[in-house]
Design brief:
Length: 389
């Protein structure tokens, strides 16, 4: 695997950190003080004239993620019988997605989260034709999974799954089906789902159209509206986001196989099958991290400050591995989110991987998830612990 050639830790002077690689390494992606690198990739395009990305996944050695930009094909009024042979290609695809992303080390139990409340259109807990409770319950029974349905009202108004709650599940399906410009999932809930995936559990993000977004930074920070607002709050952490409105026709499975190869998501489908698609779906876009071959890697120069380096190695046998390093270079003070945090000495926790809702710290050799509500830092000048809210 590709590794940095200097131990992580504290250095009094600037350093240049090089690389160690092996013959088994195929490609490397790394970030410095950025989002975690991921192997998110398109696995199929539609057969429209413009060839828009149709299916995207994340498979980077952690939990797998499937991205789907069109939820109408899963309505209750589209459901068929519970026997596998009676499933349409669209529901067969979703059944395959659940089987593909779920953590086989855990019991077959799926948490189905929806930002639409009961009584609103497109609700995971609703029985109307354009809701999802009947269709997804039937599908889970076919797949042998126990489903648990929760909407934002299950948490008092905003989706807010906790790490303790998620321990009961092997995968989570998030139906982002409210057209909104507001965030309907808490920062704490986002952090819990990120940690859930990092523990090897899978996610399926399903949504529909909205405003056009140019970049992943736009999807993360900008004011915009769309069915995908909730989904993007999570997807951006995996190098992906939903954007815009795409008009599609059903996509033929044989076309996908012939042009982009086979995949476990198409298991049990014939080349004559068509995955349903229609007007006004969302496109899936990827951040586009630079991919390096081992002989292209150059040293990373580190001057004063804190450096959080995340390295994703893809091996020639297809396996992947994510490693994280933290370096403190003559850093007695650190400005974080416009707030001055002062560490008394190098034994204090290293702050790393900032996001809107929290960050991780290195403490006693382990990464610990922190949030503004449970964090105090030592101010050496004041000789006291200070809050960070």
């Amino acid at each position: 695997m590709a590794t940095l050639n200097k131990p992580q830790g504290t250095y009094k002077k600037p350093v240049s950190v090089g690389w160690n690689t092996t013959a088994e390494d195929d490609t490397v992606i790394f970030t410095v003080n950025g989002l975690s690198p991921t192997l998110s990739e398109f696995i199929a395009y539609d057969d429209n004239e413009e060839r828009t990305p149709f299916l995207a996944v994340t498979q980077d050695g952690l939990g797998r993620v499937v991205y789907d930009g069109g939820f109408p094909k899963y309505y209750n009024n589209q459901a068929t019988g519970a026997r596998p042979a009676s499933l349409t290609a669209s529901f067969r695809f979703l059944l395959n997605a659940i089987n593909w992303v779920h953590n086989p080390a855990r019991q077959k139990k799926v948490l189905i989260l929806g930002d639409a409340a009961p009584g609103e259109h497109y609700c995971v807990a609703g029985n109307n034709g354009d809701d999802f409770y009947v269709s997804l319950s039937t599908l889970c029974a076919t797949a042998g999974f126990e489903p648990v349905f929760k909407t934002r009202l299950s948490y008092g108004g905003m989706l807010n799954p906790t790490a303790q709650e998620l321990n009961s599940y092997s995968c989570v399906l998030l139906m982002s089906s409210v057209y909104t410009g507001q965030q309907l999932i808490t920062d704490e809930g986002i952090s819990a789902l990120i940690g859930f995936r990092e523990s090897g559990n899978g996610l399926i993000l399903i949504t529909d159209h909205g405003e056009n977004l140019d970049t992943i930074r736009h999807a993360e920070d900008a004011i915009y509206s769309g069915f995908f607002k909730t989904a993007n709050c999570l997807a951006v952490h995996f190098g992906a986001f939903f954007s815009g409105t795409i008009d599609r026709a059903p996509v033929n499975v044989g076309h996908i196989r012939a042009n982009y190869g086979d995949h476990p998501l198409y298991a049990g489908m014939s080349d004559a099958d068509n995955i349903n698609a229609g007007a006004s779906e969302a496109a899936v876009k990827l951040a586009g991290y630079r991919v390096y071959y081992p002989d292209e890697l150059e040293p990373i120069s580190m001057h004063e400050g804190l450096y959080h380096v995340q390295v994703l190695t893809r091996f020639k046998d297809g396996d992947v591995r994510l490693d994280r390093y933290t370096y403190s270079i003559n850093a007695n003070a650190l400005v974080v989110n416009r707030r001055l945090m002062v560490r008394e000495n190098s034994t204090s926790p290293f702050i790393m991987n900032l996001s809107k809702g929290g960050w991780r710290v290195m403490h006693s050799g382990k990464f610990v998830q922190m949030l503004p509500t449970n964090t105090l830092l030592w101010d050496a000048a004041k000789k006291e612990w200070i809050g960070v809210k």
